[in-house]
Design brief:
heterotrimer; A mainly alpha; B mainly alpha; C mainly alpha; B: mainly alpha; Four Helix Bundle (Hemerythrin (Met), subunit A); two-stranded antiparallel sheet; 6 helices; 2 strands; elongated; C: mainly alpha; flat
């Protein structure tokens, strides 16, 4: 087991094996593809974040004085589309999943490396289509594309945006397919399902959703494009069509999609918490199966987005009850994380700070989801800032913090460098404060009646909006810091040892960064996951945080 | 789960592998099992892809049964039935081609692959005839659509609502059109498989591309097995 | 694991082929008879039988060495049914339709 030795000579690894743009653009190495994704999704994060900043600037004042109403519609639409389809859905699976899953299962690569590269190219093509769409007029339908506005009335580039997301969907499907086949067929000898890292279980569940759900939004977008181009009437009430059918088909994917966005983050947190508590995960099987349960239940609840849209009361009752059920496996995870922490030897590293933030903020977000599942409450707060706060608590307070925690945790492995720990902890704190300042006021705003997607509002809402915008600025600083010091560390950071955290897992048993084919010889696994007691027995002194 | 035993240790480097073995797989069996699973999962995505269309179809057939019946009656069920038989025959030739590969019958393998493609082309030809009929009758949705004074099958005193009939035809063209597109892709795949077979790439030990291409083709057949009764036979009894 | 039925798969293939053609003919004929609400039931029943025959015998699902592939098929069918039937709970319990 590697300790804190620093390599004296430059070893060959996946980064320095080959140089040149072709060696990157034509790579089939899952680790390089992960970095290609890292750069691409960061680019789209900036675009989505830019739109968010414009939205928050507009909402500083009650009057609609920064942009016109139509422009504002485009801002929130494109913020949503870019953040959902081009940032959150790929983020952890395409970056951390791609990089780590072959390592974690003891394989040389994913099952289909060329399909992995194709997946990235589809994402890039989709991204270029989306950027072109935004530069030539944009879309104003909301990220939800509701008909008949999107099919019959909007004067914006709905078809192009729809096709871009269609292509991005195939990127997502192929990633999910690759992961499932890899996890089933390429595990090292001795690596049974009950010894797999829970990060892998989480990605397995995510992949099920990607595989089964994404095709439905793909066909829905095909129908929207066809209807808009040919004036068909499938969703147009004037021609006998039902707009609610669009919503059923759209949300059948888009609700499970939010679980695509959160499950990988839960997997990350489940890796970080045992490492920095020096304890095995409490209730391994519960955590593993709760991931699968979230994936399955997530498909049963979609019409809770449609409670006030015109579905029947009976259907609403069914979906309300099912929505309560889906909270249970998530709660199971929170209990297990807490139980893992209990009596552990806690180290407040930057990844751990992000993990703590995740657990608290995800809990708040999740609980407010239960409020929304109650029909009576939803009547009141649907389409208000309460909903916006709810999903941002989960997506940003949850998924994004998990992503940042994971990037910090595995950065030494990915880059072979250590990031500056003090700056990282400061950034985590800034993110936490900025996040709560941005989004907690929005719960209140929603509850007292401010609708979403409005660019002007009554003056009594201004104070809360100003707080929110102030928070957004702080949050932006918090996000910029890691980008700066990660880049800095690639040149000036201390070289990382193979296992700076003394973490469990096959990925920590290879050099940092790994070689192209990961393992010098096929590992054979004979130990349980998260065997931290055994690991710590091998050291005389307490683990010190490195960096 | 049982497939934890499916993983095998790395084969020694001295072993001779078939040229088809990719470096990240330990054995050919692992590669074949991975490809097989990968294709089945891809077919699962295709099921859900078509599934959205079946959902839309189900809702509107429930709402506008009479109008759908009238519209369905106007498409040629005989041609639809012929096409169903053609695809069933093509699925047979696919499994026969694979059997021929397994038993080293090169001539039969090539013949069966060629027959499969021939059946596929026949299917598309018949589809073309059907589409032309619809075009001539102004049943293509859009500006030229017309469905006036067509009686509803079970209530011949009532006429079908043209707007509702247009929804049927929109779904008809999208569903069969998407299916035909998959056929075209299938023909492309089988052209490539024929070329590989011609070059002698397939042996009794290695013919995985044939197997997974076959899986795709059978799936396209299964979609049509459902499309035929749902689109052509809604309300055909007097 | 190769085909267990390597001895006479041809017989199976041709039998299934025949059954599929017979099924197609039956579907056509049954549609011409008034079975009331059972017309779609019969049509879908025959279609599902045919689909199962293709999947089990032509796609070799029956001989699959482990349950995984059958699990893929079963879970996909399950979620497709969820899409269709949970959506239907809305439409079947609505007392209104679009009036145009």
């Amino acid at each position: 087991m590697a300790t804190a030795t620093i390599p004296a000579v430059e070893r060959e690894d996946y980064l320095n094996k080959e140089y040149g743009i072709a060696s990157w653009l034509l790579t089939t190495d899952h680790k390089r593809i992960a970095l290609l994704y890292l750069i691409s999704i960061t680019f789209f994060f900036f675009i989505g974040g830019f739109f968010a900043l414009l939205i928050r600037l507009e909402l500083l004042t009650p009057a609609g004085d920064l942009v016109q109403a139509d422009t504002y519609n485009k801002l929130f639409t494109q913020h949503g589309q870019v953040m959902v389809f081009f940032f959150l859905i790929p983020s952890i699976p395409a970056v951390l999943g791609n990089f780590l899953i072959p390592l974690m299962v003891g394989a040389k690569d994913l099952a289909f490396p060329r399909i992995n590269l194709l997946s990235w190219y589809l994402y890039i093509i989709a991204g270029m289509m989306m950027v072109h769409c935004m530069l030539t007029g944009g879309v104003d339908t909301g990220w939800t594309f509701y008909t008949p506005f999107s099919t019959a009335f909007s004067n914006t580039k709905v078809i192009e945006a729809g096709l871009a997301i269609f292509v991005a969907g195939f990127s997502s499907i192929l990633t999910g397919l690759n992961f499932v086949v890899t996890i089933h067929r390429m595990r090292a000898p001795g690596l049974t399902w009950s010894r797999l890292p829970l990060f892998v279980w989480a990605h397995y569940a995510t992949s099920i959703i990607q595989i089964l759900g994404t095709p439905v939004i793909a066909i829905t977008l095909v129908l929207v494009v066809a209807e808009r181009a040919l004036h068909l009437g499938i969703f147009d009430p004037k021609l006998g069509g039902d707009p609610l059918l669009f919503q059923h088909l759209f949300w059948f994917y888009s609700h499970p999609a939010v679980y695509i966005m959160i499950l990988p983050s839960m997997g990350v947190v489940t890796e970080i918490i045992p490492c920095f508590s020096r304890k095995r995960v409490f209730g391994y099987m519960f955590v593993a199966l709760s991931s699968i349960a979230i994936a399955v239940f997530g498909f049963l609840v979609w019409a809770h987005h449609m409670f006030v849209a015109g579905i029947s009361v009976y259907a609403a009752l069914v979906f309300s009850i099912l929505s309560y059920a889906v909270a249970v496996p998530s709660a199971v995870k929170v209990f297990n994380w807490t139980a893992t922490l209990y009596k552990g030897s806690i180290h407040y590293s930057a990844p751990m700070l992000y993990a703590f933030g995740f657990v608290g903020l995800f809990t708040i977000g999740g609980l407010t989801g239960l409020f929304l599942s109650a029909l009576g409450v939803d009547m009141h707060v649907h389409d208000t800032y309460f909903v916006i706060a709810h999903f941002h608590y989960i997506m940003v307070g949850g998924a994004l913090m998990g992503y940042l925690g994971g990037m910090h945790f595995w950065w030494p492995k990915i880059s072979g460098r250590l990031y500056p720990e003090a700056w990282a902890r400061l950034a985590a704190l800034i993110v936490f404060i900025g996040f709560n300042l941005t989004f907690f006021p929005q719960f209140i705003l929603g509850y007292v009646g401010m609708p979403r997607r409005y660019y002007q509002y009554p003056p009594e809402y201004q104070v809360l909006n100003v707080l929110s915008t102030a928070g957004a600025t702080v949050l932006a600083v918090g996000y910029l810091l890691p980008m700066i010091y990660f880049l800095w560390s690639m040149r000036y950071g201390k070289p990382a040892p193979d296992n700076p955290w003394r973490a469990a897992g096959l990925e920590w048993m290879v050099q940092s960064p790994p070689t192209t084919f990961n393992f010098p010889e096929q590992p054979v696994v004979t130990w349980e996951a998260y065997n931290y007691e055994e690991i710590d027995k091998g050291y005389k002194e307490e683990p010190q945080l490195v960096g | 789960m049982s497939d934890s035993q499916a993983v095998v240790p790395t084969a020694a480097h001295e072993e001779i592998h078939s040229p088809g073995l990719l470096h990240h797989f330990a054995t050919e069996e692992q590669q074949r099992d991975a490809s097989n699973l990968g294709m089945w999962i891809f077919l699962a995505t295709e099921v859900m892809f078509f599934g959205g269309l079946f959902c839309a179809y189900l809702i509107y057939r429930h709402w506008y049964f009479g109008d759908f019946g009238a519209a369905s009656k106007s498409i040629n069920a005989l041609l639809g039935g012929v096409n169903t038989a053609v695809l069933i025959c093509s699925s047979l030739t696919v499994v026969l081609a694979i059997w021929a590969a397994q038993t080293a019958r090169r001539g039969m393998m090539l013949a069966m692959l060629a027959l499969t493609m021939l059946f596929g082309l026949m299917f598309l030809g018949v589809k073309g005839v059907e589409y032309k009929d619809k075009f001539d009758e102004h049943h293509v949705p859009g500006a030229t659509f017309s469905f006036e004074k067509v009686p509803i099958p079970s209530h011949s005193d009532q006429y079908a609502n043209p707007q509702h009939a247009q929804i049927f035809f929109a779904l008809y063209f999208i569903m069969t059109g998407l299916h035909a597109l998959h056929m075209v892709v299938g023909l492309g795949i089988f052209t490539w498989l024929f070329w590989m077979a011609w070059k002698g790439r397939f042996t009794p030990e290695y013919h995985t591309p044939l197997e997974i291409g076959g899986l795709y083709w059978h799936f396209v057949d299964i979609v049509w097995i459902y499309l035929f009764p749902l689109l052509y036979l809604i309300d055909r009894h007097p | 694991m190769h085909d267990h039925a390597k001895s006479s798969p041809l017989k199976t293939y041709f039998t299934v082929w025949g059954a599929l053609l017979v099924g197609t003919y039956l579907t056509y004929k049954a549609a011409l008879i008034d079975l009331g609400p059972f017309n779609p039931v019969v049509a879908l029943g025959i279609a599902t039988t045919k689909a199962l025959l293709v999947a089990l015998f032509f796609m070799h699902l029956k001989n699959a060495s482990e349950r995984l592939l059958k699990l893929v098929v079963a879970s996909t069918s399950f979620f497709l049914m969820i899409l269709l039937f949970l959506t239907l709970t809305d439409y079947m319990s609505r007392p209104w339709t679009i009036t145009s």
